[in-house]
Design a protein that fits this description.
heterotrimer; A alpha+beta (about 250); B alpha/beta (about 1000); C mainly alpha (about 325); A: about 250 residues; three-stranded mixed β-sheet; two-stranded antiparallel sheet; 7 helices; 11 strands; B: alpha/beta; Rossmann fold; Barwin-like endoglucanases; seven-stranded mixed β-sheet; six-stranded mixed β-sheet; globular; binds ligand MGD; binds iron/sulfur cluster; binds molybdenum atom
């Protein structure tokens, strides 16, 4: 239903750690691979071997360079983005058909492929670009939070997490319930200052991003900046000191 | 039926039957060898993910691995053996049957074998079956065999194996759990793709460690480093040398470690102008000597219990000798390695160098760790502790792909040795079968190549002195690639990059057949591509090709296929048997030995054959010893699968170490077991046998480890492995250059040998930097994109959406010097030629460096790509302008553009300048080669209307099962090992 | 935003249709429309024709037009749903009104004014709903502001007025009043549009690359590499960019063709007759149509969506 549930029993979502994401695209491709045969199958690709290859992907990796105003040390930040499963999801409320909905049980935002008319309005309403129009089927698709995996007892237990999470080589992605303040994701997010994207859009995204940690350009330890103290004034002096050095084998 | 005003509520099936069946095998979307699960639905591949139990990837899978379906569905796949009918390079082929193809190959090869086996050059590229292919070459009797190491990272391998008996290049790994200071030199992706990512994620999440990336470019791993050192290319040796300078001057040295595990105390004879100069002083039994500081006596360095001195000189029978450490320290304490001097060349401030040296010392000595581990040292002394110096280093092609890479790599190992961090907790740990003796042996075979005779051993090996070179009495090379000659004495992996050039030139001699496997030499693995295409097609006066016959095995229609006379189409990795063997490049971790298999998990849908099967059959047809039984029948009639299970390289030692012996109860050594492969399949495709705690550390001098390693056949004896800060084998070459010893280099090579065979590592500017005229001021390098594997990622329907055109990246200030900005087209000009590219500016790059992604550019007509594919119109290769030869010396002689010690291709020495394109020139890359024809390739999964709907037929079916609770799993905190397993 | 032809046609055509409808009925209530079946039939026919054509064209861009009927179910939350619903409901009183007008040409029954008033109200609401579809989209600040419904309403009326004014000459109820109304509405449209442009030009950005990524603390955020090298749906749909020069030229076109030329043409009809009047009226309609299409094109083309912040835009 297009009306958002007043409350969801769980708030399932992802934590993405920008401090360790190396931008390898594994999560994006694995997501594509799982979902092209999954709940939203297929995720089609147009002109896959030609000049204008493009396709439906639920997860995309952007790379940003952040340059300090003073021109100092820049940072490259690899930035994966999929649906944030917003609490106040405008993509849901604009939908004229009720095809878009947020699940009351876990907060996952989904599209009903049988009733979507492909008006694309939800993609206009989503500030994050998390909706993916399947031109071929004429319906809107999106990250399902791997709803066909996470509860699925026909799969081995290790697969009962989103594909992007289980595949991420760096371990930069975590999945869990943000509704429970004691869940690992809630604690991780709290500990690392997890933040929501574009709060000014008033969507209350569930997913959290962990900021890159500050650089450790100077080791925290006292001796960091100072450098080492030579044991003698000259190299000859240093070498001379070692003449009496006796070690044991 | 619902009316227009009712909301239809979807009932999502959260427990669909998505998977009917799962097979376990090994990925080969790159060389990392991760374990995969291939899941099927309706007998189609539904999904590939990481095997959570696998020692390499523990359940994770990279982008390439995740796109495996699109590799095996690629419309670039070859479908039939091909015989060339048009001119070379035209792509005009006739499809032939396998019987004809095999007859043809047999005929060509048997002619050679009967007359002069070395007229076959067999080079196998990205081969994961080198223990088979190398053996085949040896049995054939040609020394002209190598795989891709020479153009890849032999500097890394040799630098390590001649120093520490192990190497960065996937022969070891940082102790990700414990390291507190991790420095990475010149790595964009590595062969250990997934392990490095897992390791970095883990290391950073621990929060207590610092990760420093030394790299001119700040992307990927460097992007998440705690500190980025934007070094100028080719200067890492100087930078690391300056760190050593600082550590020595402040005496931040692990003296005990140096004394016990390295040859630092060994006495080196100082007798310039004599045949002994620079060699170790040895006792009558040939044991190196040390000076015992307590007894003031000379004792064997191999004896336990001595008290060596590390400095000063001693008189031995009238000759002066000093400990190796003394010589090393003298070199690095010299002003030329001071931070101030280093700053001038490296572009890294002296202050930064000082600070990093201090941080290294701090981590190693103030934050050292001690584990309570009971172990026994090489001398049988019980130990209860192991001291960890939690500093670890890793390096790859940013160091090795320079002409000073061998020595730079040695400097890095020296830095590790001084800090005492090799094979200790928190340091860099070898993976079995390493460490091996330094150098490991065996020596290269190929001194004699005779008709109808096998070589005396394997073609590749490790020379320990000039006597091991493969040279003729006049000093000319015996191998077509000139490996193990005076030009490249320690070319332990051969020089694949020079084969086509040398074969064309007939230098040192012409060949009859060039037989290649899995290397795209007509494109991205060659330097000077336009030149190489000329060599491949150039003819003699009578119209015959200068390289008479070319046989090539590829699985895809790569840029090289059109140049072959006979094409042997291979399968994809999901369709064949393979073994990832301890005899080759196994899947071990520092925790213990492991190996793995591939087995066919999907049926073949076209007329192609696994290359190894073909090779084994060719071996039998040619009656190569080992490939036929006594009665002349095929030794492995069942093909590669048969060979994997039954071949014995040494008694009881075969391709796979697991489940040996008649009943599968033996590990490492044991008789062949007919049920072995099934045991592998049942175990998820791999075998592992973790070390005990007592075997795990300081393996060079760990009795339990050495005993096990010997038993497994990894090392020839249980002797302690001594790391070499001073390399006597190098000094032997130097002495030869001075005129001493059994073999002396021709005059033209003397200076070069004398200079670069320095037994103590040193830094010198890369050759091209000095050779190239002043106007070429910019360094041009490439990086691996994490989601592409060289050329073969570009045909992948999913991966090529991510990258199908490479830009030239550079600093905005650098772009400003030619008044160019984002999206402008520029000429990249080297003395070799020029190539056109579109630019993009970024800040995270050293200002004197420009770079691009490797191997994105494709040639028109290749890989089953359609006309207009951006790869073919805008993607470009730097390879076109990298010279394969250095400029001529005074006498006109030209060396390969390679490291003078190992022959490693010096890709990253390239110097260029930029020019902005005119408006008319913009829009398409250049040089642009003709489109070639394509034979019939495999059908793609694309529907007739041009849309790929993979998965449409895989829609899950309802299972009717109740929903389970989702797994509680936090990737980044608990780690995949615990989380991913069940 | 990508200026899709179908959506431009839909909003302009149906807007004008509703404008004609509203003004015609209002004038009718006020007794300014002469009886005569052809007057009713043609005027309402033009109005309903434009509305229907617009609605039909709006289904053309649907992935599943055959399911379009489902689009009315979510009127509780969705402006698109409401628009569809009101568009449909509006037909009912309008048809009754039209039928009544044919049967009772003199508007003598008491229910006729009620149905008429209802038709006007519903038509206004429908136009408002259309506007609110855009005005409610926070990711597109150029749309989600108070000017959007005002513009839609005024432009619907002014374009309707231009058309009705032309019709009035042919159908014989031309009047100075209608000319005045047209000119006043056009002037109002011009002022509102200029104020709209002013306001979006001056508005401070709602979101930035920094807020989109949350990385602003570290510095200025610049896209290094997009996730995919080719265009994807998001970028073709939402990443449309119009050059500033081109936009300025179009704005001049909107002002002149959409407002100034029609005003002049309409005013000149006061001093012309015969063929010249017909020419001027045709000019007024054509220039207004061209101006309006350009206006709507700009409305889309100039609107930046926050998703572009992930693809290289720095602020929206
Ligand atoms: N400019 C520049 N050039 C470089 C480098 C660089 O950094 N910069 N790197 C260098 C290095 S380190 C390397 S290792 C080389 C790599 O270069 P190559 O060894 O040429 O590697 P690939 O492009 O992967 O090509 C291998 C060939 O194997 C084929 N192939 C793939 N799968 C199979 C299979 O299952 N069976 C068979 N028979 N064939 C298969 C592919 O189609 C392809 O033609 O490139 C080198 N070239
Ligand atoms: N995804 C993917 N994985 C691969 C491959 C692939 O093609 N794709 N190829 C495989 C192969 S064959 C190989 S050999 C490995 C290679 O693995 P890497 O060694 O990681 O390969 P490169 O991409 O050559 O990375 C070289 C890095 O060194 C930097 N660099 C260049 N010059 C210098 C220098 O002078 N000093 C320093 N400090 N840095 C420098 C470059 O910026 C770059 O980051 O990767 C393997 N893994
Ligand atoms: S991210 Fe976009 S698509 Fe996902 S719930 Fe939020 S608004 Fe909807
Ligand atoms: S495209 Fe489908 S899901 Fe999106 S708003 Fe329209 S009907 Fe709803
Ligand atoms: S949760 Fe599933 S659908 Fe969503 S991005 Fe991850 S893999 Fe894709
Ligand atoms: S898989 Fe992990 S490291 Fe790779 S891009 Fe995705 S989040 Fe980043
Ligand atoms: S790193 Fe990726 S491509 Fe390479 S073997 Fe592992 S999963 Fe396969
Ligand atoms: Mo390589």
């Amino acid at each position: 239903m297009t009306a958002l549930p007043a409350q969801t029993q769980k708030k399932l979502g992802l934590v993405i750690d920008l401090d360790i994401c190396v931008g390898c695209h594994a999560c994006a491709v694995n997501c594509k691979e799982w979902n092209t045969g999954g709940h939203s199958a297929p995720l089609p690709d147009n002109d896959p071997y030609g000049a204008d290859a493009s396709g439906v992907w639920f997860n995309r990796i952007h790379s940003f360079e952040v340059v300090p105003e003073d021109g100092g040390d820049s940072r490259m930040v690899h930035f994966p983005k999929s649906c944030l499963h917003c609490e106040d999801a405008p993509c849901v409320t604009v939908c004229p058909t009720g095809a878009s909905y947020k699940r009351e049980e876990d907060g996952i935002v989904l599209v009903n492929p049988d009733t979507c008319i492909g008006c694309k309005l939800c993609s206009w309403a989503c500030p994050y670009g998390a909706r993916e129009y399947d031109d071929d089927a004429g319906i809107m698709k999106k990250c399902t939070l791997c709803v066909d995996r996470i509860y699925n007892e026909t799969l081995p237990a290790d697969m009962r997490v989103p594909a992007c999470v289980s595949t991420c080589p760096a371990g930069a992605r975590s999945f869990g319930d943000f509704g429970d303040p004691d869940s690992d994701v809630s604690k991780l997010s709290a500990a690392r200052g997890g933040y929501a994207l574009m709060p000014e859009q008033n969507c209350k995204p569930v997913n959290r991003y962990l900021p890159p940690r500050p650089r450790k350009t100077v080791a925290e330890e006292a001796m960091g900046g100072a450098g080492l103290t030579p044991v003698a004034d000259s190299s000859a002096g240093v070498m001379a000191r070692w003449l009496d050095k006796i070690l044991s084998l | 039926m619902s009316g227009p005003f009712t909301t239809v509520q979807e009932q999502v099936d959260v427990t669909p039957d998505a998977i009917d069946r799962t097979e376990y095998t090994t990925c080969y979307m790159c060389a990392c060898r991760c374990g995969i699960r291939v899941h099927f639905k309706n007998d189609e591949v539904r999904y590939i993910d990481g095997n959570p139990d696998h020692p390499i990837n523990k359940g994770v899978l990279c982008a390439k691995g995740s796109a495996g379906i699109m590799n095996y569905k690629s419309p670039g796949r070859l479908t039939k053996p091909l015989k060339r009918v048009g001119p070379r390079g035209s792509g005009e082929f006739e499809e032939i049957e396998w019987s004809e193809a095999m007859d043809l190959a047999t005929e060509w090869l048997s002619d050679i074998r009967k007359s002069d086996p070395k007229r076959l050059a067999f080079f196998t590229g990205r081969d994961q079956s080198q223990s088979l292919t190398g053996w085949w070459a040896g049995r054939f009797g040609t020394p002209n065999f190598a795989a891709h190491g020479g153009f890849c990272s032999v500097n890394m391998a040799a630098g390590g194996l001649y120093s520490i008996g192990s190497s960065f290049w996937e022969f070891g790994e940082p102790d990700w759990e414990r390291t507190l200071y991790f420095m990475m030199f010149g790595v964009a992706e590595d062969h250990d793709s997934n392990p490095i990512k897992m390791g970095l994620g883990h290391l950073k999440s621990r929060g207590e460690a610092k990760f420093v990336s030394v790299n001119p470019v700040k992307t990927g791993y460097s992007a998440i480093a705690d500190e980025w050192v934007g070094i100028r290319p080719g200067t890492d040796g100087l930078f690391a040398g300056a760190l050593i300078h600082e550590l020595l001057a402040a005496e931040k040295i692990d003296w005990d470690y140096l004394a016990r595990y390295t040859n630092a105390p060994w006495l080196v004879i100082q007798a310039p102008g004599t045949a002994d100069d620079g060699l170790f002083a040895r006792d009558r039994d040939g044991n190196p000597l040390i000076l015992d500081g307590k007894t003031k006596k000379l004792v064997s360095a191999l004896e336990a219990g001595g008290s060596p001195v590390m400095s000063g000189s001693v008189d031995i029978a009238g000759q002066r000798a000093v400990p190796a450490f003394h010589l090393m320290a003298k070199r690095f304490l010299d002003k030329s390695y001071s931070p101030e001097e280093a700053e001038k060349s490296c572009g890294v401030s002296a202050e930064t160098i000082r600070r990093i040296a201090a941080e290294l010392a701090h981590a190693a000595f103030e934050r050292s760790i001690e584990l309570d581990v009971d172990w026994t040292d090489w001398a049988g002394r019980k130990q209860t502790k192991i001291v960890g110096r939690p500093v670890s280093l890793h390096a790859m092609r940013g160091v090795s792909a320079h002409s000073n890479g061998f020595h730079t790599c040695r400097i890095l190992h020296l830095l590790q040795m001084i800090l005492g961090t090799i094979d200790v907790p928190g340091g860099f740990r070898s993976k079995p079968p390493f460490p091996r003796p330094v150098p490991p042996g065996p020596k290269p075979a190929g001194h004699k190549s005779e008709a109808n005779k096998p070589l005396e051993g394997m073609p590749l090996g490790f020379p320990t002195g000039p006597e091991d070179l493969l040279i003729n009495p006049d000093g000319t090379p015996k191998r077509i690639d000139k490996a193990y000659s005076w030009e490249h004495p320690l070319a332990a992996h051969g020089l694949m990059q020079m084969v086509i050039h040398n074969a064309w030139k007939g230098d040192p001699y012409p060949i009859d057949v060039l037989f290649m496997y899995m290397a795209n030499m007509g494109w991205n693995s060659s330097m000077n591509v336009p030149g190489v295409l000329h060599y491949l097609t150039d003819t003699n006066e009578d119209g015959s090709y200068k390289i008479p016959k070319i046989i090539y095995s590829d699985a895809f229609y790569s840029e090289t296929v059109p140049y072959a006379d006979l094409v042997l189409p291979d399968t994809t990795y999901l369709e064949r048997w393979d073994c990832i063997s301890l005899l080759d490049r196994p899947i071990c971790s520092a925790e213990g030995p492991a190996d793995a298999i591939r087995h066919p998990v999907v049926p073949l849908d076209r007329d192609v054959r696994p290359f190894q099967d073909v090779l084994i059959e060719l071996g039998a047809r040619l009656k190569l010893p080992g490939f036929v039984t006594a009665d002349g029948s095929a030794a492995y009639p069942g093909g590669y699968q048969d060979y994997i299970a039954n071949h014995e390289r040494a008694p009881g030692i075969g391709p796979l170490a697991g489940w040996r012996g008649e009943f599968g109860t033996d590990q490492g050594r044991g008789a062949p077991n007919q049920g072995q492969l099934q045991r592998y399949i049942d175990n998820g495709g791999f075998w592992e046998d973790p070390f005990t705690e007592s075997e795990s550390w300081m393996k060079h001098g760990n009795k339990d480890y050495l005993t096990r390693a010997h038993k497994m056949g990894w090392i020839p004896s249980t002797d302690r492995i001594v790391m070499q800060i001073y390399s006597e084998p190098l000094q032997k070459f130097r002495l030869a250059a001075q005129g001493f010893g059994p073999a002396v280099p021709p005059d033209r090579h003397k200076d070069r040998i004398e200079t670069y065979f320095d037994p103590i590592p040193f830094w010198y500017p890369p050759f091209e930097t000095t050779a190239t005229a002043q106007d070429y001021t910019l360094h041009a390098i490439t990086q691996r994109p994490m989601h592409m594997y060289h050329s073969w990622g570009g045909q992948n329907a999913w991966l090529r959406q991510i990258t199908n055109q490479n830009r030239l990246y550079l600093h905005p200030d650098t772009a400003a010097t030619i008044d160019a900005g984002d999206e402008d087209w520029v000429w990249i000009i080297s003395p070799q030629g020029r190539v056109k590219a579109q630019i993009k500016t970024m800040h995270g790059v050293e200002k004197g460096t420009i770079w691009t992604w490797n191997a994105i550019g494709k040639r028109k007509g290749s890989w089953g790509l359609k006309p207009g594919a951006p790869e073919t119109e805008k993607g470009f290769l730097l390879n076109h302008i990298i010279p394969e030869l250095l400029p001529a010396q005074g006498d006109g002689f030209r060396y390969a553009n390679a490291d003078p010690v190992t022959g490693q291709a010096a890709w990253y020495d390239l110097k260029v300048r930029l020019e902005k394109c005119t408006d008319e020139e913009a829009g398409e890359t250049e040089p642009m080669f003709e489109r070639f024809e394509a034979p019939t390739l495999a059908p793609s999964a694309v529907s007739a209307d041009g849309v790929l709907r993979y998965g449409k037929a895989l829609h899950p079916t309802p299972s009717g099962k109740p929903a389970a609770a989702m797994a509680e799993w936090i990737g980044n905190q608990k780690g995949h090992k615990e989380g991913g397993n069940q | 935003m990508h200026p899709a032809k179908s959506v431009i046609f839909f909003t302009t055509a149906s807007g004008a249709g509703y404008g004609v409808l509203i003004l015609f009925i209002l004038m009718d209530i006020a007794g300014l429309i002469p009886a005569g079946w052809h007057v009713t039939l043609i005027s309402l026919g033009v109005a309903l024709g434009l509305i229907s054509a617009g609605l039909l064209s709006s289904t053309a861009h649907l992935g599943h037009p055959e399911r379009a009927w489902r689009a009315m179910s979510q009127w509780r939350t969705s402006w698109l749903s409401r628009e569809g619903l009101f568009a449909l409901i509006t037909f009912l009183p309008v048809l009754i009104y039209g039928a009544g007008r044919l049967v009772y040409p003199d508007m003598t029954t008491p229910w006729q004014p009620v149905v008429a008033a209802l038709s006007v109200a519903l038509a206004l609401i429908t136009v408002y709903c259309t506007a609110m579809i855009y005005a409610s989209l926070r990711p597109i600040p150029a749309w989600s502001n108070g000017w959007t419904p005002v513009c839609y309403l005024i432009l619907s009326l002014s374009s309707g007025a231009v058309l009705l004014n032309a019709l009035s000459f042919f159908l014989g109820f031309a009047s100075v009043f209608l000319i005045l109304v047209s000119v006043v509405l056009l002037l109002a449209g011009l002022i509102v549009k200029i104020m709209y442009w002013q306001s979006i030009a001056l508005a401070s950005p709602r979101s930035t690359a920094e807020s989109a990524t949350g990385l602003g603390d570290m510095g200025k955020v610049k896209l290094f590499e997009a996730p995919h090298q080719g265009d994807n749906y998001l970028m073709t749909e939402m990443g449309f960019r119009i050059a500033r020069k081109h936009a300025a030229r179009l704005k001049r076109l909107v002002i002149l063709w959409g407002f100034v030329f029609p005003i002049i043409a309409i005013l000149l009809t006061r001093y012309s007759d015969g063929a010249i009047t017909i020419g001027l009226l045709t000019i007024s309609v054509l220039t207004a149509a061209i101006g309006l299409i350009a206006e709507r094109y700009l409305f889309f083309a100039e609107a930046k969506h926050s998703v572009t912040l992930y693809y290289g835009e720095s602020a929206v």
